[in-house]
Protein 1
Amino acid sequence: MPFWKNVLLNGKTNSNYKFVFQNLKTKTHMSANTENSKPKNSDTKATAPLVAYCQELFDDLDFKAVKAWKEEKPGRKAIGYMPVYVPREIIHAAGMLPVGIMGGGDQLEVIHGDAYYQSYICRIPRSTIELGVTGRLDVLDGMLFPSICDVIRNLSGMWKMMFKDKYVRYFDVPQNYEDEIGGKFYIHEMQQLRDDLGKLGGHEISDDDLLNSIAVYNENRKAVEELYEFRAKHPWKAPSTEVYLLVRAGMVLPVEDHTILIRDYLKAADLEERPVRDNCRVVVSGVFCEQPPFNMIKSIEMAGCYIVDDDFMLVTRWLLEDVATTGDPLENLSKAFLHHSNETAAKYEPDVENKGVYLIDSVRNNNAEGIIFAGPSFCDPALLDRPMLQNALAAQDIPYTSFEYAENSGQMQPIREQAGTFADSIKLWSVAA
Amino acid sequence: MPKKAPPTAIKEESMEIQKKMIAENFRQLYDAPKTGQKVVSTFVPGNLNELLMCFDFARNLPEINALQNGMRKKTGRMIMEAERAGHSEDVCTYVKADLGMMAQGNIGPTGEVLPTPDLLLLSYTGCFTFMKWFELVREQYKCETAMLHVPYQGDGVITKNMRDYVVKQLKQEIIPTLERVSGVKFDIDRLREYLRQSAKAEEDLVWVLQSAKNKPSPIDAYFGGVYYVGPIFSSFRGSEGAATYYEMLRQEVEERLRQGKGPITPEGEMPEEKYRLVVEGPPNWTHFREFWKMFYEEGAVVVASSYTKVGGVYDFGFRHDPDNPLETLADYCLGCYTNLNLPHRADMLAQYVEEYEADGLLINSIKSCNSFSAGQLLLLREVEKRTGKPGAFIETDLVDPRYFSAANVKNRLESYFQMIKQKREGSVALGVAA
Ligand code: SF4
Ligand code: SF4
């Protein structure tokens, strides 16, 4: 029985679920080529069930999808990871489910978590602790804490102290990008993870397992990229609220299913006709760790902005090129990380001239008209990086606006107003020009 | 009633020497454009001072500038300047104080213009913010840069992979860059000699810090401690001057111990030791004297602190080893306090409470510093649980005067001392009853 049988909350089945289920089951073959399938008639409902399904996964703070996956075969294991990047291929190759833990959002009532953190620390660690102490993460057999900042780094130690029976690892990545130096270090760190997970899973992870997982993730990255390209091309057809939910679904779904889901969505979205608005096109930057409330994404769109690129859940788009599927798998993953990975505040930029270039490229490649810097309050990486990025943009006359959020911010009116004013001013500029 | 004249600070000879050393270092920096001496800017935790000395660099440490400016009450304006230039209120104030100082003409703490460095060397230990700080400073100076990535001790151990990684960076990237920028060829024997001096100084420093195990403690290991670690954490580790300073400091403390004296405070000797505390977290610099006074007025002595380990943990046996010069630099960088994982930090603090027979753990949580602060509430509970001693938590900032609320801190401290007293009386009463 497929694992998603029990996915929906409260054990209910409904039409959304069936639709998605059928699609997932039958449309494996239609992976690529969304462009070829031109809309025959306008089906305004085509994407709705898929989006509803993703919304349910998003709303599910009990990780029922993960539980269902584990229950399907006894002995299955799931490994959680926090932002910003871990090589999920290794978890997958161990036969385990990688689960992205993105905090508690604005629906989780944080009761215990606040007792662990002072007011001047961002929200994501406290809601993650809340998820942990309320047993919601019991479904996980281990947790990885990537090298992103001191808060997540220290959370790894807290996890070790609080959840002693679980596998907990701080996963370091190199800030030195030479194959011989940073690469060797990184391969060793990955090997350690491979050995650990091999032990946890009761069997060694072979090179073939890894190469196979790399191929599976290459495909997923391709699908996510197709989704981003599709949105950048037709932002009215793939609203960012939907794109967000789709990518977010990849935090809990098996990667193979996620790939199908995205491609199903692309097909459905292409068939659907939606009104084109006179929105301006923006890139959203700084949202790579603590996630903003879903309403913030909605508010940006409602304020007249099409988001055409962003840095949400970078783990799905971290590696910018296909990873080689022959040869030494860890070396391949290392090379991809060192030479073809995304930029973010958590990574060192060795060349001062390159600081912010990725953002300028994103503006150019996606025909964006401006940038919205949205950073979590108290986030040193995002907020300290911001002025440097802004300087780089200013030198290119690219307009931007900035604000801070917390995952549980309730009041969206100021953000809507700010984004609205920004959109208006961009329109004015473009008229003037 | 005539107003009491403000007390003049009482200083021991070692303190005078230290003052001179610091003044000389600033002199060297200010004069560098004239003398042609090459200047390197680098951070405190995991600094490679001995190595930099091998290339005759003058060493500029932005954190030291920030704290010195903080003590001179200049950082408030600097931070506002950085915020005006677009920096968030939420981020590390050391960074903003430094950037604000640069924006105001880069005038150093003692009033002269700091030179543009010839090299920015980021040794990235125990804190991610350093990486951003470094990138921000680099944007302004646009000078030659080098970066040493020091991995974090996630599992509480230094692995071979970590050490190899650091050593390789030293050999293949850092040393060649230092050679190129300075024009001086690397001489490993020179490095060995400096490391020998370091180890000597470290031995004496540890003796001084551990003298606080005595009752009364002859030192305050936090407020006094920050002076004691000054030379070894900054531009002097490895120098003969530092070794001499620590020798002298040790003799002074030995003498105090012989005489059964308590620590020296800015207002003289502390008459009675009533409370013995372990403190976690950096101090506040903008109100340093006022803060200290809240302790010594109540007879509270800090017998051990984690802050005095931020630029190197020496009291568990590590010494710079001249026989393995690059490996020892790696181990030093990897072993700084904030590069230890939280369970390790909890072990250390609990051990301090026990070995130094402290009344409990006080955490001074710094708003700016996620590296120290994230997780401290759990640390507090853990240490309380393990030692059975009550803990307390206060919140201040390093150099942002807006976050030092004297009344709040004082209140908290007073109730903490009260709690310790009650606990003691309670246990005495219990003892009697038993
Ligand atoms: S939101 Fe920022 S500060 Fe908080 S955990 Fe994430 S990267 Fe770190
Ligand atoms: S966050 Fe803390 S350790 Fe890092 S630079 Fe700021 S004060 Fe120093």
Note: The mean pLDDT of chain A is 90.
Protein 2
Amino acid sequence: MDNKIIVKIKAFRFDPTVDKESYYDIFEVETQTSYSVYNALEYITENLDPTLAYYASCRIGACMGCLARVNGKVVRTCTTMLTEDITIEPVNKENVLKDLVMKCKPSPGEI
Amino acid sequence: MLKADVVIIGSEGAGALAAVEVARHGMKPLLLTKGPIGKSGATVTAMADFEVDSRSATEILGLKGDIRDSKEKFFEDTLISGGYLSNQKMLERHVNDIPEIAKEMIDKGMKVAEELDRAVGQTYPRSIMTTGPEFMRVLIKMCKEENVAVYEHFMATDLVKKDGKVIGVVGLDLSTGEFVEIGAKAVIMATGGGMQMYPYSTAPDELTGDGHAMAFRAGASFIDLEMIQFMGCTMMTPPAVEGQGFGYALCADINAMDCWLLNKFGTRFMADKDPVHKEHVTRDKLAVGMMSEVFEGRGSEHGGIYVSVSHLPNQIVDNFPQSKNVPYLSKDWEMFGFSYKQIMEEAKAGKALEMGVASHFFCGGIKVDENGYSGIPGFYAAGEVTGGTEGGNRISGNALTQVLVQGKASGAAAADFAKTVDFEEFPKDMTGYIERVNGPLNREGLSPFEMRKALQKVCWEKLCVVRTEESLKCVLDKVAEFKKQLPLVGCKAKNKIYNREWVDALQLESLITLTELVASSALQRKESRCVHYRHDFPVANYKEFTMNNILENKNGQIVTHFEPVVVTSIVPPKEA
């Protein structure tokens, strides 16, 4: 594909079992035309750091499972194209399960 | 130990309605889901229509349909579309139960289009148009009303059996990394299809056949598992839109343009295969047409085919998204949040689009009766993880009808069964169950990501749309190798909370099991019917194979045989 460039992804990290405080890691990823933030997250866990946690499901913009804060704005990572350096954070930093994944209801809770 | 009267694995279309029904029968349900409810599974991605006979839709639901239709005609259309392989007792419930369920969901506030659409294969308009998220919004509302409990980020890994009966579920709590045991009087499997066997899929990432694998280990039987529907003309590039149905809307769907599907020599192959309909054929014929070119060495660079629009005048291409013929396509070429504008500008200028097929729906699955009962006491299944309703092919919209009807039926049956039994003690020695879960985390070894990709490559090349005895035997040889390697798979990531590599390792085992089941089934059906295409037996053989392909687990070994289809009213013809 066209327009391959390397971009930096600054990713929010927090594992409550290990970390006292959150921190950021920077990953370098090669992007191209129509390469999504979701594509990059998948690439990072499968090739650079398998401990990075994110949630995604449908990849077609329908399920709203992959919401994250990219450069401060809440977006679907699967429909957000990666065209430049970004900072990615969970939707709500106060309610993090791990990294970009939010806590769900108390298990097992009522819906 | 955590307990619930009826545990339902999978929280979306089928599972959610099953839970509602369990609660309404006075039993306590518990929904388990790998993701958050409403944000996982295939239902929410449905495009989304569901089918009700046009007469009931008009008279009971007050929608604009055609009252010449009947439940009997809906039954017949579905049966014919599925190559006469449907279990007719299940199909009777399919057409009879849906109007009442649809009425309740509309009464609960589900927004639907006033006018019905007509899907290919349906004699009358039967498609009630809504969206996947709207459909799930109402089901979740119904779950809330019944105080249904849900356990999110939970990956079930095994059914637990005692004296031939299913007595509970075990699995991994992804939020803690702990192995969890859950006692149940009955369990309903509602995990959906296993589309992630293939590298290109229209389905969500987590549909990895966990339910099939758990059910097989518990001794359940399968029916017509070779029947996997592929959507044709899905995108192969760029990465963000892999597997998406944009191309199908562009080239093949009801209101598509006259695009040309070309092989690597530039031959418009569909015009040769079907001079009348050309590219505008049913999904099964489109997928077979495309992948036969690939199989015979005339495919594109990435293993698909080329699509040309540059023979069309610019106005025709430019007007296509303006026409509103494709409900999900914006006037500016945007579909599901992706802009195809640049791609279409390049296509107009002469660059061919590369398109392939993507796994879309499992028509076969766990063998159940019309109540969702598997034949194993305490074990039920509903939705796409089951087979028997659709037979060998699925008409658009019948998936959501199937999940609703089976969800409700299995919920009622499982609750009634749960009333007759008590909770049982789990076995003292749970080592095998625990090891299945914790093994990959505790080991260093082969990468689950790499293994999954290797397995998907085998399925793509040898178990996709076009199959032969040779290709299927090759899959089984490869599966034997993968099974040997599985105990060597280990995680580099050692964190316990939400470890994707660990989950992928567990899903890998499901995918390997499912691949073996599908290939074993496909080997037995020595004919081509509906979505199952054998290059070495290219025509349907109604005399010998209008039968259900049954796969059983005999002491861990796969044993197959054919059984007569369940007939209530329409005897299958002796010839195609």
Note: The longest strand of chain B covers residues 178-189.
